[in-house]
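Preliminary data (for renewal application), iron/sulfur cluster complex.
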Amino acid sequence: MADEILIKPDLQFVKRIMAAGGQDAKKCYQCDTCSVVCNPTPEENPFPRKEMLKAQWGLKDVVKSPDIWLCHQCSDCTVYCPRGAKPGEVMGVLRQMCIEHYAIPPILARMVGDYRFLPLLIALPVVLLLLALKVTGRLAIPEGDIVFAKMFPWYVIDVIFVGAAAFAVFVLAQGVMRYWRDINAEPWKVKLKGSVMSNLVPTLTQIVKHEKFKLCETTFARSLNHLMVFFGFVFLGAVTAWAFVKEWVFHSPGPYFLLSPIKILAIIGTALLLYGIYQIIVARKANADKAGYGTYFDWQLIYAIAAVGVTGLGAWVFRLMGVKILAYPTYFLHLTSIFFLFFYAPYTKLAHLVYRTVAMLHARMSDRGF
Ligand code: SF4
Ligand code: SF4
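Predicted structure:
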């Protein structure tokens, strides 16, 4: 006789899924169409039907599943679901709950996922930056040419943003290590092949090329738009790293000439970021009826990235135009949005960069066809 399995449904968990954007999860009648039309899913033990069942039944351990991160939210399943249960959206909500589950402190994770706390979350960097201006005696618009370092000297930027980045890396690392432990324990325990290091390079190559994402059909353009934003981030990250090295190793901080390589890289990065995010917004709205509109969690990250790009471009343009009264406040907003994006990264959808990488690495090592 087969072993008995004790199922412990958690109704609060079901309510949370429905409140966070998975309100149609209960419509699912387990026909399995979603798993059949999903191109990225492995053939063996495919998703998302089984995750839909667990979500409906309140089996909250599903948030620790390695498979929820193999879904790339292309929404083919949502388009073809005969019941309108929106499995793509439900998978997104499960990932949000996974991030919340592993992030510390959990209260901050819950606040970041709740739109009612947005003003408070924005207030933190605003107050911090205003405090820095007050302490350094720079609350007024600086005299003379527009040089942003007159407002926030490099050492102030470094203290605030290196601190924010260190906090984010620490929280993310803690969460991901606990997630890795869980996906290597029962009921997901499988024999892994090869070492982490030998599998990491092919996994990262697959991610950089968006190989799985490109398998999506209905919203194929989403993978291209995502790729632009991804490389926008990579280029701007390289620019930031170069500026950091110039400052601390060569003791030669900016400003940079308009046609210097670092400036050109920054312009290309900003253009990719802005165009990619604009296309993401347009495509999501255009496909909302068939593929789902997305949740607050999705849109929060989209608008945070857009805010970084728009304010960065705005501050640069206003500086070139010599409009002080707009350049400095826009730069202030730029720093606010950068802080928001990175400090809260372990709690927002941006954490998918790390969780999905770990899940795809695990899938490759466990022969899941990734
Ligand atoms: S989510 Fe839709 S397609 Fe998938 S099993 Fe349920 S009813 Fe069928
Ligand atoms: S959203 Fe796309 S990748 Fe995710 S389960 Fe649905 S079809 Fe598969």
